[in-house]
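quick one before i forget lol
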Amino acid sequence: MGGDGADAAGSGRSNGAMTTIRAPWLRDADTQTVLSVLGNAGAQALAVGGCVRNTLMGLPIKDIDIATDARPEKVMRLARDAGLRAIPTGIDHGTVTVVVNGTAFEVTTFRRDVETDGRHAVVHFADTVEEDAARRDFTMNALYLTKDGMLVDPLGGFDDLQRHYVRFIGDAAERIREDYLRSLRYFRFHAIYGDPEEGFDAEALAGIAKNLDGLDKLSKERVEAEILKLLGADDPAPSVATMRQVGVLARCLPGADDKGLARLVYLESEAGVSPDALRRLALLGGVSPVDDLRLSRADQKRLSNLRDGIGNMQPPGELGYRLGSDAATNVVLLRAASLETDLPDGFQDQITTGATAEFPIKANYLMPNYTGAALGARLDELERAWIASNFTLDRSALMEL
């Protein structure tokens, strides 16, 4: 989904001032079809979660999730009776995927937790939106929209969202014990949606600190997903620094050091370079981030190259020639952040020059005067001279050296 904005008008919030949201994705015929199929049968049907939160914040949305008091079997029947495709993707937990003209909507029955172990929950279906809201993680995620755009806010999340304040629903420690991944989600949400001026919620940090042992119960794949999403935020430095202070960083990435992260974020902005989670992970270091996060082979290789590049002192032009433009840019950024230096003047132009340069000498040009090891040594010597000339010496000039 694209960046659907929202206009707020005064009429429609269950908690406090009435607010109605006008969002293109909500008015879209496909969305209205799903909501109407349920609503016309007497069921509650509300858009919920990220699509509501991001719309209110003026951010792009990806998926449209719908919450309903209809049981999943009824959702399946109503959808199919209306000629829609219904897929029981998670029917045991109440989720049915309804497809309208190629667009998928996850429709989930209101739920309440009855038993949790920090990783998985046993849920029962619920009848009210208040019960459904109470089992969610953060107040800004417990916001719902009716078919007509009326904001339903059972827990006061709209006020927190307006402040860009990330707060757990109810008792923070209890929410975390339901799913220990919420400790990491808290820092990711603060990095993406939080206001640095508001700071971190004290109760949230206390709850996280009390449940550090729970992080050890999480799969490495789940931890990896959260850490990389966090590091991909525009500015994760405040969240990562607080993770270190609370003790989370050492649990997830033993030996990691975030000292240069804020500097790296600043340098990326100065250079006009997009955020890169692996670049930032390379700066954090750690004893064994590959094992701690269960990275893919491709990410392992890239991370290794980035970490090796931090100690590479070649000038930008040579880095561009040897590594290519993207890798060379990463090395220069990491090096400057690690050494707390400024970016070299004109480094991006130098990298581009090196990345597009082609060494004008081939081995056969030097034969038969040079063969074997002597040939290799002569090629290296001429290449170094060519690089030192800022790639300006042509073939004739090099042959005369």
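fyi The mean pLDDT is 92.
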